[in-house]
Amino acid sequence: MNKENLTKKWLNDALTPAEKEIFEQGEDFQLHRAIVDGAQHFKASNFSSPNDFEDLKSSHQAKKLALKQLYWFKPLLKIASVVVITLGIYFMFFNTNQVAIETFVSQQTSIELPDHSKVTLNASSEITYSKSDWKNHRQLHLNGEAYFKVAKGETFEVFTSLGSVTVVGTAFNVLQRKDYFEVQCFEGVVKVTSGTVSKTLMAGDTFRLLNNEFSQDKLTVLQPEWTQNQSQFKSIPFKIVMAELQRQYDIKIVVQNVNEDRLFTGGFEHNNIENALLSITQPMGLNYKTKASNEVIIYGNSN
């Protein structure tokens, strides 16, 4: 039996149980039911009953047409939504005037901030700040290492993933690498906060947080050694030294039979790879060999 005859019998409540099961499983059943249920809310002049089949058919066709129009309109709504979201992201991003300065391996750069404070970035480092809001909030985010000479003015803040530094006008160095946070104060006064630890540093003081262990030290230099193409370390795990060597020379170091947690004191220069490798391996009783693909193997004795 075709759909039209089934629909007529359904309207007249004349379907057999088998026909009723087939009809209710049809794809149009819910639409028929919605139309009839909706018709119950309308009042005729003398009586209330389901529309005849022709009226139902016309209503069904109109409903299908409306659905087709809706399906055609939905892609436009999706496109419009994407456009609105894209424009929102565009205005949100560009209206903040966010400035990002990044250095790559074996690269350093110096910049001047809007208040004439100066920042020198070490290799593989990045700072970000809001140019439009700088007059009200001298704040920036640092990932890596940077040396700051801050012009006097309102509070100047440096945020890192491991801690923050607050100053007014001074010169200081901030180093933030994985599990390693160090602040050196060269001029003025610096307040350092990391977790529950908060310290005020005077000129010549060093704040260090290594593997969640806090320590303080004194400086013997007037500015960071890395700004003079030298990296210096004092009782630092050897793996941190090797990581810095990789950043300064754009090489990959592979270790063999090496205790990477052993503490190292010393340094290396940034403009001669052979001298740098000798400077970090000889004091540790290690050897090295180079490969053509910018790879260096540092190894210890097997016995």
Query: How many domains, in number, for the residues?
Result: 3
Write the element-wise H/E pattern from the N-terminal end onward. Answer: HHHHEEEEEEEEEEEEEEHEEHEE
CATH class of the largest domain: Mainly Beta
Low-confidence stretches: 39-53, 63-93
Instruction: Name the shape in a single word.
Output: elongated
- Give the overall pLDDT as a whole number: 81
Kindly identify the CATH topology of the largest domain.
Jelly Rolls
Strand content: 35-45%
For the record, give the distance between the C-alpha atoms at the N and C termini, rounded to a whole number.
Answer: 91 Å
How is the secondary structure organized here?
Elements: H1 3-11, H2 17-24, H3 29-39, H4 53-94, E1 98-102, E2 109-112, E3 118-121, E4 126-130, E5 138-149, E6 156-159, E7 164-167, E8 171-177, E9 180-187, E10 189-194, E11 197-202, E12 205-210, E13 213-218, E14 230-237, H5 238-249, E15 252-256, E16 263-269, H6 273-281, E17 287-291, E18 295-299
Parallel strand pairs: 5-6, 15-18
Antiparallel strand pairs: 1-4, 2-3, 3-5, 4-5, 5-8, 6-7, 7-10, 8-9, 9-12, 10-11, 12-13, 14-16, 17-18
Helix pairs in contact: 3-4, 5-6
